[in-house]
Amino acid sequence: MAEAPILVTGGAGFIGSNLVDALLARGYHVRVLDNLSTGKRSNLPQDARVELIVGDVADADCVHRAVDGCRAVVHLAAVASVQASVEDPLGTHRANLIGTLNVCEGMRAAGVRRVVFASSAAVYGNNGEGEAIGEDLPKAPLTPYAADKLASEHYLDFYRRQHGLEPVVFRFFNIYGPRQDPSSPYSGVISIFTERAQKSLPISVFGDGEQTRDFLYVGDLVEVLVQALEAPQVEQGAVNVGLARATSLNQLLQAIGAVLGQLPAISHLPARAGDIRHSRADNSRLLSRYRLPEPPTDIREGLARLLGK
Ligand code: NAD
Ligand code: UD1
Fold first, then answer.
1. Are residues 141 and 206 in the same domain?
2. pLDDT beyond 90 at 229
3. What is the pLDDT of residues 140-188, one digit of tens each?
4. Among 7, 9, 14, which residue has the most ligand 1 atoms within 8 Å of its CB, making it the best to mutate?
5. What is the mean predicted confidence (pLDDT) over 102-111?
6. 6 C-alpha to ligand 2 centroid (Å)
């Protein structure tokens, strides 16, 4: 009998496809459930150990079929854009919360216990502005995206208590790296800035550019996700995943300019509604439970790898 696969929902997307590569490199079989809304078939390698199911996490039957026979689940499928959730709260809710509930129900029915979940730093809202954000700060979701991530965490905890699921909840800060798709104005800022800088197209900064983010290279993130899948036991409580370093957009632009040797014209537009001003992880819980690569990839190194320099 073929080895039981790991199910990666959203596995054809940016983070998901980088994780699939890391799992294959460790010898796992992988099943991907993805509706290819932002993910791409071409993000997945041609490998007999990868099975792609094109389907929606909001479709309970489809999720049940995908979970059946798996050894564990990494639940990444979601509308990843905070701004998209502001424009279409109900549409994003189907993927971002109903999708999580379907995964929980599918796992309960199939007797699968371990699930690694992609929550977000967005659950903190503007709490802890200017300081490192610890997991126990009050939560203040400002957008439908953040509300659905926080509600997903609560549902996962319910299934842990009631049905013995083993959820590992990670609150990702800002992840960047290869295969992050820059094609929408709502895409991750590093994917947009690097693509435009390479093509010498003008760059728009929303606000004064002094907002800060804690940028983590995707290769470092997937190492942590694999450890969470393989850990013999799961400790309770969500875990921040970030580098604990704040980089402003202005500093980011400088760093891109330093790697490329040039920058295109930069203009400033009004700040986005619901945009968080400062976001930096307190990652001490992460470092006490998991290992980041030593040294972790700093922003200059990560940009150089992304830009092929
Ligand atoms: P992405 O858009 O590249 O990946 C999301 C994947 O989910 C895509 O392949 C998409 O096609 C798929 N998908 C979307 N809706 C679906 C649905 N209804 N059914 C099935 N598949 C669906 O984005 P990403 O950056 O790789 O994000 C992965 C996860 O990490 C998301 O849950 C996102 O909220 C979370 N996250 C990302 C970041 C970041 O900085 N990139 C930060 C915090 C949390
Ligand atoms: C990002 C993630 C979200 C995650 C959150 C966790 C994406 C698309 N979003 O949201 O899934 O939950 O981190 O911290 O990956 N900006 C510009 N110009 C642009 C694009 C963006 O100035 O062309 C600004 C934005 O206004 C914002 C900053 O860059 O101030 C970062 O934006 P973005 O990359 O969309 O990330 P978050 O909103 O932090």
1. no
2. yes
3. 999 999 999 999 999 999 999 999 999 999 999 999 999 999 998 888 9
4. 14
5. 98
6. 29
Task: Flag whether 290 is in a domain.
Answer: no
* Domain of 147, in residue numbers: 6-175+217-241
Q: Please identify every residue annotated as catalytic.
A: 145
Residue 288 lies in a domain: no
Q: Output the pLDDT for position 273.
A: 80
Tell me, yes or no, if the pTM score tops 0.70.
yes
The total domain count for the chain is 2
Q: Which contacts qualify for 107-110: CB closer than 8 Å, 24 or more apart?
A: 107/67, 107/73, 107/159, 107/165, 108/159, 108/163, 108/165, 109/64, 109/67, 110/64, 110/67, 110/68, 110/69, 110/70
Same domain, 75 and 182: no
Pocket of ligand 2 (CB under 6 A): 80-82, 120-122, 172-174, 186-189, 192, 204-206, 211, 213, 249, 272, 275, 279
Q: How far is the CA of 75 from the centre of ligand 1 (A)?
A: 9
Q: Which residues line ligand 1 (CB under 6 A)?
A: 10, 12-16, 34-39, 56-58, 76-80, 95, 99, 118, 120, 172, 174-175, 188
Residue 1 pLDDT > 60, yes or no?
no
**Number of C-alpha atoms within 13 angstroms, CB side, residue 43?**
23
Nearest CA to ligand 2 atom 18: 205
pLDDT of residue 276: 83
Neighbours of 278 (CB within 10 A): 17
